[in-house]
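Quick one, tokens below. Sequence please?
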């Protein structure tokens, strides 16, 4: 399956999930307040969207499935590389998910992020390249930014 197809599935799933479950998962006013406190607003929305969709995807993949993956491959087994790099990748997102949602949703989303990180690590190992994970991650971040635009860009 091409990276773009997987990415489109991630993008669509993220968008549909939040649109259909917004009443249960998101507290829009609280989330807007949190984003405001982080100084994330629409003043530079094009820059924000570019950074979050393109730069974030590339930099995270270069770091997690590139640098960290390569370092771990030298000291642990392939299975442990996938688990450890995915744990660190997920924990890196934990603070954001807990702050934007609740502790329970944050933990659930972090477990999902672990699974996605594991999948991207698996594909990195399979193809010996971060290309798949970069493209897929880019499209997943597009889904997240579509949610941002829908609910938080006034």
């Amino acid at each position: 399956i091409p990276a773009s197809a997987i990415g489109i599935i991630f993008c669509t799933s993220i968008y549909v999930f939040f649109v259909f479950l917004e009443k249960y998962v998101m507290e829009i006013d609280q989330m807007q307040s949190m984003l405001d406190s982080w100084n994330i607003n629409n003043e530079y929305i094009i820059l924000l969207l570019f950074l979050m969709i393109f730069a974030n995807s590339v930099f995270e993949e270069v770091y997690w499935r590139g640098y960290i993956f390569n370092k771990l491959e030298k000291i642990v087994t392939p299975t442990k590389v996938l688990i450890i790099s995915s744990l660190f990748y997920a924990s890196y997102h934990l603070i954001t998910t807990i702050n934007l949602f609740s502790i329970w949703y944050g933990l659930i989303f972090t477990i999902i992020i672990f699974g996605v990180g594991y999948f991207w690590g698996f594909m990195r190992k399979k193809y010996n390249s971060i290309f798949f994970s970069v493209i897929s991650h880019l499209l997943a971040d597009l889904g997240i930014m579509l949610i941002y635009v829908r609910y938080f860009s006034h």
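The radius of gyration is 16 Å. The chain has six helices and no strands.
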